[in-house]
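User: Here's a protein and a ligand (2-phosphoglycolic acid). What would the complex look like?
Assistant: Let me lay out the input and then the predicted complex.
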Amino acid sequence: MEQRTPLIAGNWKMFKTGPEAADYARRLLALLSGGTAGVEAMIAPPFTALSAVADLLAGSPVALGAQNLHPEKQGAFTGEISAPMLVAAGCRYVLVGHSERRQLFGETDEGVRLKITAALEAGLDPVLCIGETATEREAGRTFSVLDNQLKNGLEGLIPDRLRKLVIAYEPVWAIGTGKTASSAQTQEAHAYIRSQIAEGVEIALSKSIRILYGGSVKAENIAELMSMPDVDGALVGGASLDPDTFSRIVLYQRPW
Ligand code: PGA
């Protein structure tokens, strides 16, 4: 079986100032100073806190990510941030198409595709977020929703460009609700996503691509989720805001 480095990512959403982020980063690095047993960690603070943590994280097992980007490199786009700006701020990753952006800010699959293209062009590793709502799941539409989000989000991108892509399966009904998808539901969705990548893009990519699960991940449920063969990591919201809790999720292999 293909070896995929597990990735545990923290999506801070609109929480923490620069000084709070720097304090968090120092504490997290101390908690992880014994090593991460081959697990890669990443935190995605708000834009205004990126520079406060970039130097602290440089050379550590914790990578830096951003939560969004604009597809253009520069221009008259008041309030927006471009991929080259994120690279210059020390980011390696960027989240694209998070369900909150789709639902609250009108982000479309077409916009997601442009952002993924821009991120890859600038040398960032995009984390494409996809997932169904409760209504869609109840209507038996989970697979068709995932399929559409994948197809439309990646349309026209050649496999060679997608080697650094990460996918996050985040059922909308599990985000911030305390209702985690069961490990069986998660495995089923991840296996489906992998099969769609094999069919629509490339078999080799389907084997190497990392698929993270997101939605009410906690220290208590991470080990079980990670035991599923197609789960390669997690995108953690609420439980990533405290360095103690987040470090326990990163160190999920350790018996506590
Ligand atoms: P949650 O958020 O862990 O708070 O459910 C996950 C996410 O939105 O990425």
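Summary: The chain has one domain: 7-250.
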